[in-house]
Design a protein that fits this description.
alpha/beta; 331 residues; Dihydrodipicolinate Reductase, domain 2; 8-stranded mixed sheet; single chain; 2 domains; 6-stranded parallel sheet; Rossmann fold; 14 strands
Length: 331
Amino acid sequence: MHTRWAILGLGAISRDFVAALRASEHGVLWAAGSSSPERAERFALEHGATVSGSYDDVLARDDVDAVYVSTVHTSHRELAIRALEAGKAVLCEKPAAPELRDVEAILDAAARAGRPFVEAHKSRFSPFADALDGLVAETCSAGPRGVQTTRGGASTSRHGRLFDPRLGGGAILDIGCYPVALAVQVAAALGEPVHEPRFTRTSAQLVSGVDGTAFAEFSLGALDVSVGASIVRELPPSASIRVGDDRLFLPDPWGSRSESPSAILVRHDGTQRWARMPAVQPMAAEADAVSLAIAEGGLEAPQMPWEHTRAIARILTVWRERALIEGAGHL
């Protein structure tokens, strides 16, 4: 089985996806699409795509099975829906869209079209994710449940996509989706509800009209969550999970575009051990998950179910709304 992929949006991350397809079991690069057909042609020649053209040109082709949407956040909804309505499976970079209503529109389109839609949270498609689910589910200690996680880095520029409100810039959408997705995964593994977040505290620093740094505290059922994200300062890219007397420490919950994370420190009753698992090419794994969904006639990938995509979008939407109000109040 071969899945003929088209890439829509030809920024830096699209080159990583090309490399991932070479490492995948089922995917092949077939087409390159861009708002600039000339740019698409250059990309196709450089990376060996068979065809190229505008978004419309690529989506109109019968020989494209799936598309990878890697454009700016604010264009995800339109391109994903157009691709689904054209009969293509869609792998969309995170976040699926800037607001919950946009995500709901995409998922409705996927259901109507009967085609798979998968949000590309790459760390979900690896042995690490399975191991984390298992370790969390095995904890049976009574007592408080919590997860604390942050991720952030200082951008070298205050210009471009990250700092443009019209393009969905800011820390919450670009970086905050990682900690939020992890919190949703942990809540689901514990059997806690993920669709009704109860926020208790948010804070934010606005930079150039976007959330440069943001923090939030909320709960998912009995799981207390603390998350932070920044595009203007360094925040530790790690996570700690507490379930009664059990502790899990994740020194690197997300890995890179070429290698998944591979270690979890488990602490219990004063003892500790490392749980280690093999690393994989995570973007190749998510592409293969889409191929499997196509082959089985499914609409979603079990590694990243629609329930989680909806939950993440709901939390990001509320966090961002509150953060922008909070940040504006401190200007």
